[in-house]
Amino acid sequence: MKRPVYQVVSLLGLCVLMGAASAQAPLLKQWASAVVTRSSEYGADNWGAKQVLGEPNTMAYGDNGTAWAAATKNGVTQSITVSFKEPVYASAVLVRQTYGNGFVRKIFAIDTQGKIYQVWAGKDKTQPNYTVNFIATFPQTPYLVKAVKVVIDPNHNMNTYEEIDAIQLHGVK
Question: Which residues form the Pappalysin-1 SD scarf domain (predicted)?
Fold first, then answer.
């Protein structure tokens, strides 16, 4: 007995849909393209918020003007918010630390409508004395992320500034 044509087409359509669902979009990793806001900055140029934009350019651990630092060494919680060229369904944020490592405490994702979601919180266990890429991973967001806010603890090491060279967003289109 022959199957009706519509059943064959339906089975073929189902196979195509299942194949499409199992195929994963390529992971897009993009560096911050604009500063949205910051709690403070040590300088407008050196140690300014704009220093987190683009690919890393601070290669040595230490107090470098090519990384963002808050206006004061210690004190109240500090943060920086950056945006990215391409909104994505996000799954990770990389924070390149170049001085005073171990300071990230929270990361928020900001969707294309401006709504803010906390996607990561915890203790950043990166160690000092070398540049490090701290990567906070989280379940892929069901909304498109256009910006992230990184919250830092300026008091975790009372002897150093906390410095960020670059911020990268990971996700799929």
Answer: 23-171
Per DSSP, the three-state class of 161 is coil
| Dist. CA 67–CA 48, nearest whole Å | 7
Whether 156 is covered by a domain: the verdict is: yes
In a domain, 10, yes or no: no
pLDDT in tens, 104-160: 999 999 999 999 999 999 999 999 999 999 999 999 999 999 999 999 999 999 999
Helix (H) or strand (E) holding 18: helix 5-22
d(CA 141, CA 73): 34
3-class secondary-structure state, position 2: coil
In this structure, what CATH number is given to the domain that contains residue 67? 2.60.120.260
- 1 within domain boundaries: no
Tens of pLDDT, residue by residue over 67-106, are 999 999 999 999 999 999 999 999 999 999 999 999 999 9
Domain around 110:
25-172
Torsion angle, CA of 106/73/31/86, rounded to 10 degrees?
50
Give CA angle at 146 (156, 115), nearest 5°. 80
Residue 124 located in a structural domain: yes
